[in-house]
């Protein structure tokens, strides 16, 4: 039983993500409109039994993705407190994110 698996490791948003065709991936905010396409740089390509990691061969690989939506992540609450001094500080943070769908690995 042999399955032909194709996936790539791409650099996206300062991190590395494992993607295959049809995957939805959430990245740090990319300044593009929803519905447009972007190209992600590949760091590794696995095509069945073949693993490609050479830089000159990876330059030919194109991983394209379609921007589904721009959104914001969940709110993270940051609290600081020091005992016996009356010091309390409370802040919140929401990350700006972009959700993309991988359309092709070629």
Automatic annotation (TrEMBL):
InterPro entries in the record: bL21-like, bL21-like_sf, Ribosomal_bL21
Domain of life, source organism: Bacteria
Ranges annotated as spanning the membrane: none
Keyword set, alphabetical order: Ribonucleoprotein, Ribosomal protein, RNA-binding, rRNA-binding
Pfam family, one: Ribosomal_L21p
SUPFAM superfamilies on file: L21p-like
Keyword Ribosomal protein: yes
GO process annotations (BP): translation
GO cellular component, as recorded: cytoplasm; ribonucleoprotein complex; ribosome
Signal peptide coordinates: none
GO terms of molecular function: rRNA binding; structural constituent of ribosome
Assembly behavior: Part of the 50S ribosomal subunit. Contacts protein L20.
Family membership noted in the UniProt record: Belongs to the bacterial ribosomal protein bL21 family.
Function: This protein binds to 23S rRNA in the presence of protein L20.
Name of this protein: Large ribosomal subunit protein bL21
Species whose genome carries this gene: Paeniglutamicibacter cryotolerans
Gene field: rplU
